[in-house]
Amino acid sequence: MNKSKIALYAIIALLLAAAVTMGILWNNSEKEKSEMQELFSIEKEELESEYSTFATQYDELKLRITNDSLLYKLEQEKMRTQQLLDELRQTKATDAAEITRLKKELKTVRAIMRGYILQIDSLNQLNTKLANENRQVKERYKEASQTITVLNQEKAALTEQVELASQLDAQGINMYPAKKNGKKLDKIKKAKKLVIDFLIAKNITAPTGEKTIYVRILAPDGSVLTKDVTSHFTYENRELNYSIKKYIEYAGEDLPVTLYWDIEEFLQAGRYRVHIFVDGNMIGYNDFDLK
After folding, report:
1. Could you tell me the pTM of the whole model?
2. Strand 244-250 with 255-262, pairing
3. Is residue 194 within 8 Å of 175, Cβ to Cβ?
4. 206, 167 in Cβ contact below 8 A?
5. How many other β-carbons are positioned within 10 Å of the β-carbon of residue 198?
6. CB 3.0-4.6 Å disulfide test: which of 21, 47, 232, 270 passes with 220?
7. Per-residue confidence at 28, pLDDT binned at 50, 70, 90?
8. Residue 189 maps to which CATH number?
9. Residue 232 dihedral angles phi and psi, to the nearest 5°
10. H-state helical runs in 91-200
11. Contact indicator for 272, 218 with CB cutoff of 8 Å
12. What does DSSP assign to residue 225?
């Protein structure tokens, strides 16, 4: 075999070796390219999933806040996240640069989301604290109101007791028919006067000074003996006719009182009732059977 043939065979051998090597490299390149495409495709799906999750989380966060300013910011960030998700869905799995960019954007979205969560938690804790303080204030106010109500009731009760204690008391009330000179009679038929006497008891808590006594004499038929139908006084927001009116000076000690009713009308036998009033209070009453 001559040298020219040997050289030709050597060249052919080298070309075959190079072709085999190029084939192997091309197959490896296509395999790596396919693997990279598959990897980007998986990464794109994961990014889409995360973006969708964030979009949903923004809706959930909105339910936890009432701050209008924060709600507005949250809505703007949700719209931005949705826009990035739309961009990602339109991006081809082979567009490595765009996927890398959107991956970086996701980190920003994640950081912003974390910031909102911390801010909302802080606001909720503050709201909870304020709600607890408000409830405690309301409870203290309620307790104070109840205490004031009890104190007012006790004060009213004490005031009523003082008022009752300071009222005058007519004791030993008596009424009998009498002659013109005041001598007692057994029967009302011949009487010219009705004599009423009683004792205003000692009371150191009662106001002293001039007082007006009003006496109402009720006949057996229930009518009030009176000289003038316009003669009246006030008792428990009512205007009542009186039979006898008398001024006295009360000094806080026992005070005997005697009053007279001049009989100018026919008085039948039967049960009579006497009511005595001083300072707007009824201080005593009694019934008498006159024959």
Report:
1. 0.49
2. unpaired
3. yes
4. yes
5. 24
6. 270
7. very low
8. 2.60.40
9. -150, 170
10. 96-166
11. yes
12. P
